[in-house]
Design goal:
It comes from Morus notabilis. By secondary structure, the chain is mainly alpha-helical. Helix content is about 80%, strand content about 0%.
Length: about 400
C-alpha cells in the first residue's frame, strides 16, 4: 500500500464505510421474500460498486474487494432473472442466488474491515513514532482501543504484532516528556490489548516497564488500568509488583489528598488481597495497611455495614406489622435480600471506606493467592492490628466483629 496516495485515504474510507453499512443491511435481510427490505441495500452496493471501481483499482489491497463487488453484481442479476419465471426450478434458483448474495455480503464486510484495520494500525504506528499532532494521536488511540475492545480477531492481532504497536504504546507511556493525556490513552490501549488476547500480550506487560509507569503516574486513569490488569493477569502481576518494590507506592495512595485516588487505591489493594501471595500481603502489612484502613473506616466516608444491617433489622421487624410488606417477606426472603443489597450498594457509594478492614479480610479469606494456613495467620494478624489502631474499645469491638463475621456479612 506504499504506492497508494495518502490523499485518497479519506475518500476511500468514506466509500468503504458506505459499502460496509450496505453489506450489513444486506446480511440482516437475506431472504428472497423480503424484497422491500433488501432491495435498498442491494441498490446501494451496486451503485457504490460503480462509483468505487476507479478508486479501489488504485490500491492492490482492495483488488479482492473489487472482485467481490463484481461477483455480487452477477448474483443479483441472476436473482432478478429467476424472479421473471415461476416453478420449482426458479424457486431453487432464487434460494441459491440469495444465499450466494448473503455470503458475498459477509465477505465484503470482512474485506472492508481488514482494509480499515490495516490503515488504522499503520496510521497509529506512524503517529506514535512522530507524536506531532496530539489531537490526531488521541483520536487514533481511542479508535484503536474501541476496535480491539470489540473482541479477538486474528488478522488484527497479526497487524498489531507486525507493527509492534505494544512496544510503541509502552514507550510513550513511559515517556514523562509526553503529555498526561497521551500517556493515559496509551495506558487504556494497553489494557484493551490485554483483554483482546491476554495470552499474547501478558508477557510484554510482565517483562516491560508498563506496571512501574502506571504506578508512577498515579492518576485515576492509570490506577483504573492497573486494577484491570491485576484482574486479568492475577497472581503473576501481583508477584511482579511486589518484586519490584512498588507496593509501598500503592499503599501511600490511600493517603492521597484526592478522594477518587484513595478509592481507586483501595480497590487496587482489594484486588491484590484477592490474588496476592504471602510475600505481597506481608509487604502491605509491613507498610501499616491495617492502621490506614482503620483510619479510613473511622473517617466520615467510612462507617460499618453492621450498623446498617442493625438499622435494617429494626425496620424490617416493624414492617412485618404492615400487610403489604409482610407479604413481601414471605416470598422466601428474596425481596428483603434484594432490598438489603440495594441499601448496602447505596451506602457504599456515599461511604466508600465503610467496613474497609473487613472487606480486605474477606478478600484474603476467599482469594486465590494464599494457602489455608496463611489465611488463618493473616486473619489473626489483622485482629491484632485492629486492636492496636483503634482509639476506643467500642471501635475495636465493631471492627473485630465485622472481621470475625467475614464473608457472611460482606
Amino acid at each position: 500500500m506504499d504506492d497508494f496516495p495518502k490523499r485518497e485515504t479519506p475518500r476511500v474510507l468514506k466509500v468503504l464505510e458506505a459499502l460496509k453499512q450496505a453489506s450489513r443491511d444486506l446480511q440482516a435481510h437475506p431472504s428472497p421474500d423480503s424484497d422491500d427490505s433488501n432491495s435498498s441495500a442491494i441498490k446501494a452496493l451496486l451503485e457504490l460498486e460503480t462509483e468505487s471501481d476507479t478508486i479501489l483499482s488504485k490500491d492492490p489491497n482492495l483488488s479482492t474487494l473489487s472482485q467481490l463487488l463484481a461477483r455480487l453484481k452477477t448474483h443479483v442479476e441472476t436473482l432478478q432473472k429467476s424472479r421473471a419465471h415461476h416453478g420449482i426450478s426458479s424457486f431453487v434458483a432464487r434460494r441459491v442466488s440469495t444465499y450466494s448474495i448473503s455470503r458475498v455480503a459477509v465477505s465484503i464486510g470482512t474485506e472492508i474491515q481488514a482494509w480499515i484495520d490495516r490503515e488504522s494500525v499503520e496510521n497509529l504506528a506512524r503517529a506514535l513514532r512522530e507524536r506531532e499532532n496530539e489531537d490526531e494521536l488521541v483520536g487514533l488511540l481511542t479508535q484503536f482501543e474501541d476496535r480491539v475492545s470489540e473482541g479477538f480477531n486474528r488478522e488484527l492481532q497479526d497487524l498489531v504484532l507486525k507493527s509492534k504497536i505494544f512496544a510503541s504504546l509502552e514507550s510513550v507511556l513511559c515517556d514523562t516528556g509526553s503529555s498526561k493525556r497521551i500517556r493515559e490513552r496509551c495506558a487504556l490501549a494497553i489494557g484493551a490489548l490485554i483483554r483482546f488476547n491476554k495470552d499474547v500480550f501478558v508477557g510484554q506487560v510482565l517483562m516491560g516497564p508498563t506496571i512501574k509507569a502506571l504506578i508512577t503516574m498515579s492518576s485515576t486513569c492509570s490506577m483504573k488500568v492497573l486494577c484491570g490488569l491485576i484482574r486479568s493477569i492475577k497472581s503473576p502481576l501481583v508477584d511482579e509488583i511486589e518484586s519490584n518494590g512498588e507496593l509501598p507506592r500503592i499503599i501511600n495512595l490511600l493517603n492521597n489528598q484526592y478522594l477518587q485516588m484513595r478509592v481507586l487505591a483501595f480497590e487496587c489493594v482489594l484486588e491484590i488481597g484477592y490474588f496476592g501471595r504471602k510475600e505481597a500481603i506481608d509487604a502491605m502489612m509491613e507498610e501499616g495497611l491495617i492502621k490506614i484502613l482503620v483510619e479510613l473506616q473511622r473517617s466520615e466516608l467510612g462507617g460499618d455495614l453492621i450498623g446498617l444491617e442493625r438499622c435494617e433489622g429494626e425496620s424490617e421487624s416493624e414492617s412485618e406489622n404492615e400487610g403489604e410488606k409482610s407479604r413481601e417477606v414471605s416470598v422466601g426472603g428474596v425481596v428483603l435480600e434484594r432490598r438489603r443489597e440495594s441499601r448496602e450498594r447505596r451506602f457504599l457509594e456515599s461511604h466508600p471506606f465503610a467496613s474497609c478492614v473487613a472487606r480486605f479480610a474477606v478478600q484474603l479469606e476467599v482469594g486465590e493467592g494464599l494457602r489455608q494456613r496463611e489465611k488463618r495467620a493473616f486473619k489473626q494478624q489483622i485482629l491484632v492490628g485492629v486492636r492496636e489502631a483503634s482509639v476506643s474499645d467500642a471501635e475495636a469491638a465493631t471492627i473485630l466483629a465485622e472481621v470475625l463475621w467475614g464473608s457472611s456479612m460482606i
